[in-house]
Known about the structure:
This protein is of the alpha/beta class. It is built from 10 helices and 13 strands. Strand 5, helix 5 and strand 6 form a beta-alpha-beta unit.
Amino acid sequence: MNKKILIVGMGFLGNYVLREFKNKGFNVIGTRLSINDNVMKLDITDVESVEKCVNQTNPDLIINCAANINLEFLEKNPQIGKSINAIGPKNLAKIASKNKIRLIHISTDSIFDGNNSMYTEEDIPNPINEYGKTKLLGEKYIQDSMKDYVILRTNFFGINDKGTGLLNWIIEKLSQKEEITGCDDVIFNPLEISNLSKIIVEISQSSFVGILHLSSNKLISKYEFIMKVADIFNFDKKLIKKGTLKDMNFIALRPKNTTLYNKKAEKIIKTKIQTINESLIRIKNDFKLSNSERK
């Protein structure tokens, strides 16, 4: 297969997406802000850097996984969020459009205010924090700049090799028998990251243009999610305390319900959307396998 894929942002999701494309036989090039491990250097906030990278690689498709997702930091530093989450996608869209390259952009469920539930692609976004505002602005820039694009709004979980993220935090704390609090008033329906990556690859090869919501079919609170992890991984559930957003003292506001309605996507994709249970069981089995290999 000779299609060349440029993956922008070799972070948590970018690494999974790159592996999935490689498994399918694609020619894949990854980028990040700093050079390491055969990854190209790319600063998406600099349009000249974007144009140089695209001219050097000449991709058939660009997948944008780059983002700053640190909600607390971005609330204090909105310009940094705008440069990465909005101007970056704008630059990618401008150069992609100029070179007639298809662009897939990963967005977020955080563009909604959380006052409703099961948001459709037609629902009007109303972000309540700087992260959501900058991500929504990035979407608008793409829509204004080009025609051959896909914006994928989602929320995902999984094992991050760098040890960060929700699931890593839960497993680390509970395995060390530390108490943790889960918000019972925050509802979401996330996808497991490798399942999401497979769907991204499938959509990339489709003719679909526009916005799609990618989510699991199970609505679950953050507290229930932690309890489910504890149940499957055999952690002590007594360590898990039920809390609310008010208990957390966050700087950035959090929407209470960001559940996404995925029926439009289900009509397009063939990849099975895994349940949260199926995903966690598979992750646990992978954990066992990797631990046995180390012995």
